[in-house]
From TrEMBL:
It is a multi-pass membrane protein. It is found in: Cell membrane; Membrane. GO terms for cellular component: plasma membrane. The keyword Cytoplasm does not apply. It comes from Ktedonobacter racemifer DSM 44963. The chain crosses the membrane at residues 32-57, 69-87, 122-144, 151-174, 186-207, 219-241, 253-277, 284-302, 308-327, 339-359, 379-401. It holds the Pfam family Ammonium_transp. This is Ammonium transporter.
Amino acid sequence: MLGAGIGYATTFFAGSSAGAYDAKIINAGDTAWVLLSAALVMLMTPAVGFFYGGMVTRKNVVSVIKQSLLILGLVSIQWVLIGYSLVFGKDMGGVIGGLNFFGLHGVGYAPNTDYAGTIPQLAFMVFQAMFAIITPALIIGSFVERIRFRTLVLFVVLWSTLVYDPIAHWVWGIGGWLHNLGTLDFAGGTVVHISAGFAGLAAAIVIGKRKDYAQGQHLAANNVPFVLLGAALLWFGWFGFNAGSALAASPLAVNAFVVTNTAAAACALTWMVLSWAENKKPSAMATATGAVCGLVAITPASGFVGPMASLAIGVITGVVTYLMLMLRSKKMRVDDTLDVWAAHGMGGVTGAILTGIFAEKAINSLGNNGLLFGNPAQLLTQILATVVTVVYSFGLTFLLLKLLSPLGLRVRPEEEEQGLDTAVHGEEGYRL
């Protein structure tokens, strides 16, 4: 019945996904690159599932990967119905987009020249959808092993609509107030990683600690190869994440590709050395986590900085995120289980601020110079955007979870003890 009702509604959207367009202005190479990049970014969401799934206990590995796939489905639908319109629709006071693209009405083969003039707007839409999808998937690492499934479903839909969509419009939408101030965020350091990292911190505080949580005790990973596989797939997919954000098969995409790889490598090696110094052994888990932190940090800067700057960003971010993880683990009474705040939140903050230092207009004429190139005002703009994103994401996530608490935020103690794989999903990760 639902399918039939939706099917009938298509008569009101007849032709809206095609529309009149000039085929001569569509660049086949740019379109192919953006579609490929969208596929690469899509791969990152199940990669997050493997990355997180390898870190948790063996009785919760299925639940974490399942949650990632759930988010892929939920946000895909939300984005088609209202998400894309709220972010890239007609600006309303610099705060949110209108509903002129509801159900992708008017989003067709013709380019949206405000954003990408050589590809169909449908290609731009689906590329941006993958960013909206992966952002809440990052948050789940903060409350793995204890979140109630039905509450998670509601939280993801509400968070995407009330937190992600407004922030994305502020930074990326034509007319968005942070966009108008000149905030530089090439591929989502502010929109994706800071918002997810600080939402994760708020969620960890509201939902509370695991039953067996002990401050300073490291989580015993159930499957280190899963973690390494997830990190490798994230590294691979991140080329679409950053280089795809050029929205064209262009020299700027090449630059973004190169600096993404450089920063990830530098941060991975930094984490390896720091873990070696701390524990007398070079940890594989630390190296993989460091690579992800480097990818996070270079994301806002990837379209504005050169290779040497990306090397500096990787090393600096490696030190900052490693110290933040130690601080959270040993000093903060918060069970952010997989350290989403340290890796994504503080990695994103570091990258966003360093963008204001290392950015060069010579690399991207649509960008601006940073502090080192004679424009200290850009650093102040980056700090302002960072602070606003931190406060809004943390505050609204905290409030949202408090409002959802009557539904039950976490599973029953006996279900947590049993593990969510069998207690919630009735499926075991391993049968040995």
